[in-house]
Task: inverse folding
């Protein structure tokens, strides 16, 4: 018995060590400090979002190392960020979302390549509206479902498709059949009175949020379940009254035991009649509940990011001033500023390393040539 107990203890310790070793490192204080590769000067033109003051803090911190750099900012709208780069009015697009199809297309037509070079500069927020919040899945409190896979989300919210977009390119390899549709709760393993009940789907009307959902859940597909009910953010410019907004979405889900919705943590907070559920990235992967820590360490599958985007033709290096600014952001100094600002979350060590590597690696995407 003592020998068995020792063996179990050893296995538990080994498993715990392995789990700890795999856990993403979120300690900003141990990231590499910023060390300039060279002194740079000149003007960097930024257009888009100010990231709720974060960009100004990055600029001030960078100027300490490079006092000869001057910033010119036009931060009226994140939705104008990529367009400003295309128009030659900006060097960097400061953007809280991924490009949409028309931005990929226009970028290809203006610059002759497949889209903007995109650098992830911070993780989106956990529960702050307007700050690239993590998307969470809600069901009615009486629904016994506790977790779903990303594949199941596709089956629930999507429908059969003949293909999907990778950037602006249509590919049939992203097709899926109608047999993969999930339309009743019994298909998800619920029994008894739930088994034959239809699944009612709720979520956002077309926005940057729905674009992310299509890319992440539908693999670039754009077809939704025919019963999908659309809403807009209650505080958004698109909203005309409370009807058809996220306030109504949560209120309706609270009275619909057979409903399922995607929204933000803040939308359902304080409503005891809805509950969030866990997600797993792969069918046999671990169930990840949306918490501040799982969003911070980017293990939660619907964690989002904020970006800086630029034109980087294939086979070219990034200009020294832009590269140094991006290196600063992807350093201990830059990510401590993210923590200080408090609206977004710093990147993990792994993500910082991935992004820094991309800065040093020549891009090799397809070049679009004009028709003759």
Result:
């Amino acid at each position: 018995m003592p020998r068995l107990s020792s063996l179990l203890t050893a296995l538990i310790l080994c498993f715990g060590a392995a789990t700890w070793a795999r856990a993403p490192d979120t300690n900003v204080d141990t990231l590499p400090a910023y060390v300039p590769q060279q002194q740079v000067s000149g003007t960097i033109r930024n257009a888009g979002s100010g990231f709720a003051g974060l960009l100004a803090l990055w600029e001030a911190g960078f100027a300490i190392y490079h006092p000869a750099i001057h910033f010119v900012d036009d931060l009226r709208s994140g939705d104008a960020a990529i367009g400003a780069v295309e128009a030659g009015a900006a060097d960097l697009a400061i953007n809280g979302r991924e490009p949409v199809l028309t931005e990929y297309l226009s970028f290809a037509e203006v610059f002759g390549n497949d889209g903007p070079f995109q650098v992830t500069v911070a993780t989106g927020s956990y529960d702050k509206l307007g700050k690239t919040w993590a998307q969470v899945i809600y069901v009615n409190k009486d629904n016994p479902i506790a977790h779903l896979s990303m594949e199941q989300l596709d089956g629930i919210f999507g429908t059969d498709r003949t293909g999907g977009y990778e950037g602006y390119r249509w590919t049939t390899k992203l097709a899926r059949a109608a047999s993969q549709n999930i339309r009743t709760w019994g298909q998800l393993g619920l029994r008894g009175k739930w088994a034959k009940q239809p699944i009612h789907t709720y979520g956002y009307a077309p926005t940057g949020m729905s674009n992310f959902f299509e890319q992440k859940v539908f693999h670039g597909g754009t077809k939704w379940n025919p019963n999908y009910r659309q809403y807009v953010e209650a505080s958004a410019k698109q909203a005309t009254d409370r009807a058809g907004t996220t306030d109504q979405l949560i209120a309706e889900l609270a009275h619909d035991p057979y409903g399922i919705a995607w929204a933000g943590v803040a939308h359902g907070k304080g409503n005891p009649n809805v509950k969030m559920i866990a997600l797993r990235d792969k069918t046999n992967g671990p169930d990840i509940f949306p918490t501040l820590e799982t969003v911070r360490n980017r293990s939660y599958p619907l964690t989002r990011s904020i970006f800086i985007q630029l034109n980087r033709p294939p086979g070219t290096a990034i200009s020294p001033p832009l590269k140094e600014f991006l290196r600063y952001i992807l350093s201990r100094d830059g990510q401590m500023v993210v923590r200080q600002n408090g609206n977004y979350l710093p990147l993990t060590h792994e993500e910082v390393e991935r992004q820094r590597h991309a800065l040093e690696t020549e891009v090799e995407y397809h070049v679009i040539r004009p028709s003759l």
Notes: The chain is about 30% helix and 15% strand.
